Amino acid sequence: MQKIDAYSIRNIGIPGLVLMEKAALSMEEEILARFDQGTSILIVVERGNNGGDGLALGRLLLARGYPVTIYEIGGVSKASDSYMTQYSILKELGIPVRNTLPEEDYDVVIDGIFGVGLSREVRGIQREVIEKLNSGCAFRIAVDVPSGVDAGTGKILGTAFRANLTITFGLLKVGLVLYPGAACCGEVVVKDIGFPEKAVEAVSPSAFTYDPSDLCRLPGRKAWSNKGTYGKVLIVAGAKNMAGAAALCSEAAYRTGSGLVRIFTAEENRVILQNLVPEAVMTTYRHEMEALDKLEEALGWATVIGFGCGLGQDPLTEKMLELVLKKGQAPLVLDADGLNVLARMKSRDEAEESEVIKAFAGYPHGMILTPHLGEMSRLCKKTVDEIRESLIPTAEALADERHVCVLKDARTIVCAGDGLTYINSSGNNGMSTGGSGDVLTGIICGLLAGGSPPDEAARLGVYCHGLAGDKAAEEKGHFGLLARDIIDMLGRVLP
User: Fold this and answer.
1) Continuous H helices in 337-435
2) Residue 353: its pLDDT value, please?
């Protein structure tokens, strides 16, 4: 957004003060719609452009008859030119700007302290003021980004304003979506203040998300079709007495449109899986030799392969994964124990690149890796905290033209080696429950079976998984949400 702003001003010629005035007008519009004229408002600013937005807003609201107090912290040594212009306008109009924080209570507090350019830790008087504002009972509104949130990463820079509402301009910022910054934003409203499309195209933002209009990207259904039209999904899942993961993954694949699902699992799981997912074809094994023989045949049958849910990390899982990497003839979704075994194999073979690791790197049919932070830690040899601090770079490092990375967290990141980053915006904390990841794997497999390419299947899978989770939370609540509730709601969110 900083680049878009600069391009609009320098290359296109839109005066910065025009954009500032439109930002103030857009905030005024939101406040008029939410609060009546008797609402007391405190606007707190520093002397940068974010503060200039706050000064302009104060002038507009005073003209509307709102009781407004403006407080300038004054901890910044040099004021921006735009801020000084807005300050001069207030001075000419006789509108006072206070230099001490008022002690009285206000109905609404508006944060115009720091904007998207903040990159240092908040200290001193600004920190004291932010924490004082957070301790009050007023409704809190942030201008563009809550002060103290890194707009590019979502990191909290020492402290941050905790907003009930964030009014941001032009485009959504990454730091308003990723945690922990997202937790400081409250409701986020994106306002158009006149950045030309040419400026956006010149900068070419690389991060994006989906909304319900993107469901048009789902693979279509044909009137003249049969089960073979919608693919054959092989789910290699479920070690002995671990039938649940296989069931959730398989049913999710069916609920996302797969024509035929085949579960490849230990013999001990047969009866329970036939009861839980009677639509699925069953292939079971009793011992290693039988498993490898039958798996090779099943790989020739499949048009999509899902591997790893509840599979365990014993030597047989390693041998089955090796077989899949060498003999698989379809897009592969690698999850859970598949990823853990892969990490172990990579660690063991890093001194000399083994045939298995070469097969992984060169898998020709497309592969989607779906690690949560713990699994990613084992794959890339970083701590969970290190990954959490750098979600996007970590996902980008694992992705390339053959491998799509779905890095699962409160905001799941999808990278496909093309320089674009999908940040998921659906879902809720009720989905932090056992089996939720197995459901996601099944959904992605179902979309692959329907004809979506791996990168799109990953993005849509994550988004639809979150939409179904949101619908389930509406009906079941966040505390009581189960993975199978997500499956049940897929039919309510898919066309």
Assistant:
1) 337-348, 355-361, 373-380, 384-389, 391-398
2) 66
